[in-house]
Amino acid sequence: MTPTTRKKLEIIIEAPLLGRVEALLGASGARGWSVFASLAGHSSHGDWRSDGLSDAQDKRLVIAVVSDAAAQAALEALTGFFQDYPGVVYVSDVTVLRGEKF
Asked: Is 10 exposed, middle or buried (0-12, 13-18, 19+ CB in 10 A)?
């Protein structure tokens, strides 16, 4: 197997927005992603913690490894999305085996 470079998208959003972000990723050509619950953090708005009572303010971390074309499409869609909703996107180059999976 030959290592291949792909893009890794790390997206932090509020939990109620997860379905919308997943739909954007799918429409952008992402073949898969993983979602992780965030327990606590700090931002320009201060500290936050998951209180377990409601997921309304809870955060989710979505990680997707995608092709360059899918990354570009996702970033364009997310740019518009984040004009209306809070969130953060990190993009980095990663080296993967089985690049055809992404």
From this structure: middle
Kindly report, residue by residue over 18-56, the tens digit of the pLDDT. Answer: 999 999 999 999 999 999 998 887 877 777 777 766 666
Q: What's at 50, amino acid-wise?
A: S
Distance of CA 1 to the CA centre of its chain: 27
| For residue 67, pLDDT beyond 80 | yes
User: 88 pairs with which residues across the strands?
Assistant: 12
In Å, what is the CA distance from 86 to each residue of 13, 43, 73? 7, 11, 19
Using a 10 angstrom Cβ sphere, with 0-12 exposed, 13-18 middle and 19 or more buried, the burial of residue 59 is buried
Amino acid at the residue 17:
L
Q: H-type helices in the chain, by residue range? A: 18-28, 68-81
pTM (2 d.p.): 0.89
Q: Is 75 helix (H, G, I), strand (E, B) or coil?
A: helix
pLDDT at 11 > cutoff 80: yes
